């Protein structure tokens, strides 16, 4: 067993793996688009994006270290029923229903179609993609090492080639105005918030902590330090890549407007910088970004359902089912998957973030009703807004956006605070401490 010292190589590999699991196609496509919108203020938009994506995701990892990455324990202070509902909803959303199928669909539409064309059958590609995912996921102890030692370095090399070329030979001048009605920082926060990586942090933390324990770091303080170091390495990777990609977008801001398709923009930038081979390099980057995310999410689903069923559903059986189901869903295409995803995630995400922020101060919160009332208030509010929008009443969402921080996507913060204050005055009848 390792002592109090943590080997930097171990945390580097785990940090690389965590970065790659977070870094999906959306993380690749959004920053250049922000650069086009923000023009000469690209760096302000980048900071907003990094905060809402990388920093909040890191806070999710920090919160999960208190519970060894166990999502059941993380939500336990909400009560058994709501904790199970929240944990299962998150796993299904970022698992086989939405996020995992989207990785294959995005790889096909962004990586395969521009290079090989429609001659490569989508169904055949999805089968191959998830066969590879299954092969690299079926042995849980190897997931982090495979991603961190092999796939992430290849992903980073491809990204750095693109970014360094764009810095050394910019594609054009940067527009000295913005195409954003709101501030650059505000738009950056909005786009970063939409990546939903904070939910992924709750899921990936379990894999990271398991990998740390497998390397012999079992002492609690050492384990937490190693987890936070790995999380910090992942955020540093995000900082370099997001900043570089946002800058690349700004260098073509004179050529494109706000109506540019973000995917087409990324293809155009890559071709402009790297010529004909650019499409191939982009296909490799997108494939690696999506594959690493798919591996991380599939492994997380396996661990979660194995745990909540008390081992009745084996890890291997779950990952096989997830890969088969994801293969089917991925063939609906990115657009349809996103349409399905948005309402569900807009309900789950705010309540999950409420618990993340409260957990950061858990040692000062003795009353479980603080968690329960805050989470229920936000959950009910989110359900009303989403259902109202689906039934043709968008004014509910517009009113929510007028709340403090609402225009940044954080309309739920003030209601959560009010709910937490109310909950603090409700006597807690539970005798069992969960934190």
Outline the structure in words:
With 435 residues, the chain is an all-alpha fold. It has 2 domains: 327 residues, Orthogonal Bundle (Hydantoin permease); 75 residues, no CATH class. 74% of the residues lie in helices and 0% in strands. It has 18 helices and no strands. Helix 5 runs antiparallel to helix 15. The two termini are 27 Å apart. The relative contact order is 0.19.
Task: Describe the structure concisely.
The protein is mostly helical and about 425 residues long. Helices cover about 75% and strands about 0% of the residues. It has helices spanning about 10-20, 25-40, 40-65, 70-75, 80-95, 100-110, 120-135, 145-170, 185-195, 195-215, 220-250, 260-275, 275-310, 315-330, 335-360, 370-390, 395-400, 415-425.
The proportion of strand residues reads: under 5%
| Annotation field: number of helices | 18
Corresponding CATH architecture of the largest domain = Orthogonal Bundle
Cα-to-Cα separation, first versus last residue? 27 Å
Question: Strand count, sense and closure of the main sheet?
Answer: none
Total number of distinct structural domains:
2
Helix content: over 70%
* Structural category: mainly alpha
Radius of gyration: 21 Å
N-to-C series of helices and strands: HHHHHHHHHHHHHHHHHH
Under CATH, the homologous superfamily of the largest domain reads Hydantoin permease
């Amino acid at each position: 067993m390792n002592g109090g010292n943590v080997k930097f190589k171990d945390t580097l590999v785990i940090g690389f793996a965590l970065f790659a699991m977070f870094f999906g196609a959306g993380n690749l496509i959004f920053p250049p688009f922000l650069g086009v919108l923000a023009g000469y203020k690209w760096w302000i938009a980048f900071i907003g994006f990094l905060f809402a994506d990388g920093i909040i995701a890191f806070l999710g990892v920090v919160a999960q270290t208190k519970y060894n990455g166990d999502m059941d324990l993380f939500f336990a202070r909400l009560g058994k029923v709501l904790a199970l509902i929240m944990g299962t909803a998150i796993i299904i959303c970022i698992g086989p229903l939405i996020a995992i199928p989207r990785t294959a669909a995005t790889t096909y539409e962004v990586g395969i179609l521009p290079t090989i064309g429609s001659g490569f059958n989508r169904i055949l590609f999805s089968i191959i993609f998830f066969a590879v995912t299954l092969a690299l996921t079926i042995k849980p102890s190897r997931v982090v090492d495979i991603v961190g030692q092999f796939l992430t370095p290849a992903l980073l090399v491809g990204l750095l080639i693109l970014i360094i070329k764009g810095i050394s030979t910019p594609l054009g001048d940067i527009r000295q105005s913005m195409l954003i009605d709101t501030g650059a920082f505000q738009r950056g926060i909005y786009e970063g918030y939409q990546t939903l990586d904070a939910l992924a942090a709750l899921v990936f933390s379990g894999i990271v902590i398991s990998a740390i324990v497998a390397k012999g770091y079992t002492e609690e303080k050492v384990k937490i330090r190693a987890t936070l170091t790995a999380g910090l390495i992942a955020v540093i990777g995000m900082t370099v890549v997001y900043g570089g990609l946002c800058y690349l977008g700004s260098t073509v801001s004179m050529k494109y407007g706000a109506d540019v398709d973000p995917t087409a923009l990324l293809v155009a930038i890559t071709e402009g910088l790297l010529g004909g081979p650019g499409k191939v390099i982009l296909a490799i980057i997108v494939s690696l970004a999506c594959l690493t995310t798919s591996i991380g999410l599939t492994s997380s689903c396996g661990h979660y359902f194995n745990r909540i069923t008390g081992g009745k559903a084996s890890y291997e059986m779950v990952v096989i089912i997830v890969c088969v189901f994801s293969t089917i869903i991925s063939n609906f295409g990115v657009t349809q998957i996103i349409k399905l995803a948005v309402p569900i995630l807009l309900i789950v995400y705010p309540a999950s973030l409420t618990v993340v922020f409260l957990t950061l101060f858990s040692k000062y919160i003795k009353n479980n009703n603080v968690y329960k009332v805050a989470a229920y208030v936000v959950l009910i509010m989110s359900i009303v807004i989403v259902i109202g929008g689906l039934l043709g009443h968008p004014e509910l969402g517009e009113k929510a956006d007028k709340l403090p921080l609402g225009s940044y996507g954080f309309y739920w913060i003030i209601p959560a605070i009010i709910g937490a204050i109310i909950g603090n005055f409700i006597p807690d009848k539970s005798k069992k401490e969960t934190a």
